[in-house]
Amino acid sequence: MGNDCFAAQSLPQDCRIIARGMVNLTTSTVAGSRLISETVHAPICRRYRILKRDRSTTILLGRIRASGRGKLTADRVLTIVAAVELPLLFLSLSFNSAPPSSIAAAAIRPLFNVSDDRLTRDLPSFPLEETGFSNMSSSLNPARGDHEFFEDPPTRALDEHLVEFSEALRTVAKALRRVAEGKASAQAEAAIWKRKYELEKERNSSLKHQEATKICHSGSREEETENLRNESLMHDSSPEKSVHCCGKDGICSHETLRDGAVDADSNKQRRMVTRKASFRLAWGCNGDNSGQHKHEVVSFEKGNITTAGRSSKQILLKWESQPQTVLILAKPNSNSVRSLCAEMVRWLKDEKKINVFVEPRVKIELLTESSDFDFVHTWKYDEEIKDLHSKVDLVVTLGGDGTVLWAASMFKGPIPPVVPFSLGSLESENYREYLDAVLKGPMSITLRHRLQCHVIREAAKDEIETEEPILVLNEVTIDRGMSSYLTYLECYCDSSFVTCVQGDGLILSTTSGSTAYSLAAGGSMVHPQVPGILFTPICPHSLSFRPLILPEYATLRVQVPFNSRGQAWASFDGKDRKQLAPGDALICSMAPWPVPTACQVDSTNDFLRSINEGLHWNLRKIQSFDGPRFVGRLSYCFLKQFFNTKKI
Ligand SMILES: NC(=O)c1ccc[n+]([C@@H]2O[C@H](COP(=O)([O-])OP(=O)(O)OC[C@H]3O[C@@H](n4cnc5c(N)ncnc54)[C@H](O)[C@@H]3O)[C@@H](O)[C@H]2O)c1
Ligand SMILES: Nc1ncnc2c1ncn2[C@@H]1O[C@H](COP(=O)(O)OP(=O)(O)OP(=O)(O)O)[C@@H](O)[C@H]1O
Questions:
Q1: What angle do CA 288, 606, 447 make, to 5 degrees?
Q2: pLDDT tens across 63-102, in order?
Q3: Among 57, 89, 427, 545, which residue's CB has the most CB atoms within a 10 Å radius?
Q4: Across the strands, what pairs with 329?
Q5: Do 45 and 137 contact (CB within 8 A), yes or no?
Q6: Which ligand gives the minimal distance to the CA of 525?
Q7: Is 90 exceeded by the pLDDT of residue 608?
Q8: Which residue would you say has higher pLDDT here, 630 or 22?
């Protein structure tokens, strides 16, 4: 429905518009020779009444003062342009004096194409006190209220017609949304296939260079590093030329870097040509550093299904060439972090001969401290962050969990291994030893899965481009924001309806994020290597709404229905809040780029230590024992024996 116009000449003192559905009205009033225009949005009175509700349709009755922000008076001539949005069902006018039939007919005819007779007969009257209009009465039918009016048989016929029309429009809207969602999931799938293709390409090139690798492996590590350096400096070659791969089990990473930028900070103005260090991932048993690669085997022989060996064992990262570039990300506004950062930058440069990147803010801080830090690299424009993953071998974070989240949010695609330095657990004097071990490898890592979120806007349903996907390491939250109403969210999993969330909101969390907001909302704590998506309601207004854990391959859709009383707000790892209007949806699936984080011991040990030390999980006073002595003695003997035989 486009813009329908009607003109109402010689308006009486006050008028009201009753609108069902959403409507934008532009009123232009002529006062003397002046034309005053203003746009009045439908929910101006914010008084909605739900007249009908079923699964697909909710009809809202909104009462709008046509005069909006200014009163209309008899000496003004009013022109109303109704810019009608979906789903407009009904629009009528009523006036406190003068039969309005001709005016209303003029109003309604272009909208609904109904005859004058019908309109005159159907025109309603409403109890005026409800909307704050005093001393107003209908000249047509003063005794009938709006409820009565909507029960009126001829109007009901019109109603049905309009409901049908609205439903047709809703179906079209749904189809368009499905197209947009299809596109979003196709994009995600394309990214996965691209990654697979890249891995396959790397594997093929590794086979080609197997001979070269043999020679490379026969030399010492130092020689290898030296060779690689020389080679990278000598050859301005293509990635394929300079790739070295072992061709063994596991996933190899070989990407070369040609940073053509002139190092402006250096007086030498030399051209920096560095190679991104390659590494190999191997799966083994817990604590087994042999790098044994176990595949999950599901066999089906003679009708018996058996599984042998699980693939998700501790993952080891082995460097195949020495890392040369480290990005240090430091928590702002902390003196201890700042001094540790300066010390670490100097140590990496002087002792390890490693190129260091920091954020522009940190470089300024370092230069304020001493001009010696001009060797430190940084970037000028945010767009340069996009290429950072191809330059950096390792990311070191100095701060807490928030700094790891910050690091993850900087890399909107692949991310190099992250070494988190939590200041509480790792004192500054220990960092050399730990970082030295990490640079040498092999190191245990945890692949922390991220979620990929797409916001699909109802308003942009017919646009080809959707909003950029957002990656989260902890969770995406959809909550009620400032609104005091319950959120009302419809949730679907792979196009199956899951449930409606009525409460403060919903958290879709990764297993890494299971110890963060999801935990506070009653979700379970899940080992980060367990592949899954946590579905945790926030303060649900239901006694039986328990949190769920869904498989990692699920695609979840959270939809704000049209009949939601309030809007919803999505936030990503506690940041970047986005408003979701009725009709908008958020689609969430596992991202193809996990965050590899270095372990202090191994995944399980780190996880259990973090919940015990960080969250004081199940900390309870030990029960006092005052039973008969011999039982105590027995227990003591048993424990003594146990500790003597088992070394823990
Ligand atoms: N009620 C809550 O518990 C609540 C409310 C809002 C946000 N959060 C969490 O805060 C996170 C943002 O963290 P921030 O540091 O930027 O904000 P912040 O500085 O407000 O820190 C929030 C706290 O959550 C902890 N935290 C973050 N991720 C964690 C994880 N994976 N496991 C255990 N603890 C974790 C942090 O250590 C910090 O103590 C959000 O992703 C969300 O999970 C929690
Ligand atoms: N490099 C950075 N630039 C901008 N903001 C950052 C950076 N690193 C961390 N932050 C932000 O600073 C806040 C605090 O960081 P962080 O959580 O690491 O510190 P913390 O709260 O002291 O540690 P913990 O997680 O142990 O409570 C977080 O909101 C995080 O997003």
A1: 75
A2: 333 333 333 332 332 333 333 333 333 444 443 333 334 4
A3: 89
A4: 397
A5: no
A6: 1
A7: yes
A8: 630
Q: Are 561 and 501 in contact (CB under 8 A)?
A: no
Q: Nearest CA to 244 among 323, 326, 325, 321?
A: 321
Q: Which atom of ligand 2 is nearest to the CA of 404?
A: 18
Q: Ligand 1 pocket by C-beta < 6 Å: which residues?
A: 400-402, 405, 474-475, 512-513, 515-517, 520, 573-574
**Token digits for 150?**
């909507």
Q: Who has greater pLDDT, 375 or 32?
A: 375
Nearest to 357 by CA among 412, 409, 394, 411: 394
Cα–Cα distances in Å, from 82 out to 4, 24, 61, 270, 288? 6, 6, 17, 66, 72
Q: Which two tokens stand for residue 372?
A: 């010696």
Rounded Cα distance, 238 and 273, in Å = 12
Residues facing 496 on adjacent strands: 493
Q: Cβ(442)–Cβ(434) under 8 Å?
A: no
Kindly report the protein residue whose alpha carbon is nearest to atom 41 of ligand 1. 573
3-state secondary structure labels for all residues of 481-538: CCCCCCEEEEEEECCEEEEEEEEEEEEEECCHHHHCHHHHCCCCCCCCCCCEEEEEEE
> Which one, of 117, 46, 52, 106, lies nearest residue 82 by Cα?
106
d(CA 527, CA 532): 10
Q: Strand, coil or helix: what is 503?
A: strand
Pairing of the two strands 394-398 and 418-421: parallel
Atom of ligand 2 nearest to the CA of 614: 26
The token pair at 561 is 């229905």
- Find the ligand nearest to 404 CA: 2
Dihedral over Cα of 632, 634, 637, 640: its sign: negative
Pairing of strands 496-509, 475-479: antiparallel
Q: How far is 574 from 571, CA to CA, in rounded Å?
A: 6
CA angle (61, 64, 68) in 5-degree steps: 165
For the question of residue 401 being annotated catalytic, the response is yes
**How confident is the model over 458-477, as a mean pLDDT?**
81
Query: Whose atoms come closest to the Cα of 407: which ligand?
Result: 2
Whether 246 contacts 280, CB under 8 Å: yes
**Is residue 145 a contact partner of residue 127, using CB atoms and an 8 Å limit?**
yes
**Mean pLDDT of the chain, nearest integer:** 71
Ligand 1 atom 36, closest CA: 401
Per-residue pLDDT, 426: 54
Whether residue 145 has its Cβ less than 6 Å from ligand 2: no
The Cα diameter of the chain in Å comes to 106
Give yes or no for residue 239 CB within 6 A of ligand 2. no
Q: Confidence band (pLDDT; 50, 70, 90) for 367? A: very high
Encoded tokens for 617:
């999980």
Two tokens, residue 65: 């003062």
Q: Is 224 in the pocket of ligand 2 (CB under 6 A)?
A: no
Q: Give the residue among 69, 50, 70, 68 at the shortest CA–CA distance from 60.
A: 50
Closest C-alpha to ligand 1, atom 34: 516
- Which residue puts its alpha carbon closest to atom 9 of ligand 1? 517
What is the 553 CA–ligand 1 centroid distance (Å)? 25
> Burial level of 148, CB count in 10 A (0-12/13-18/19+)?
middle
Instruction: Note whether 244 and 251 are within 8 A (CB).
Output: no
- Residue type for 384, please? E
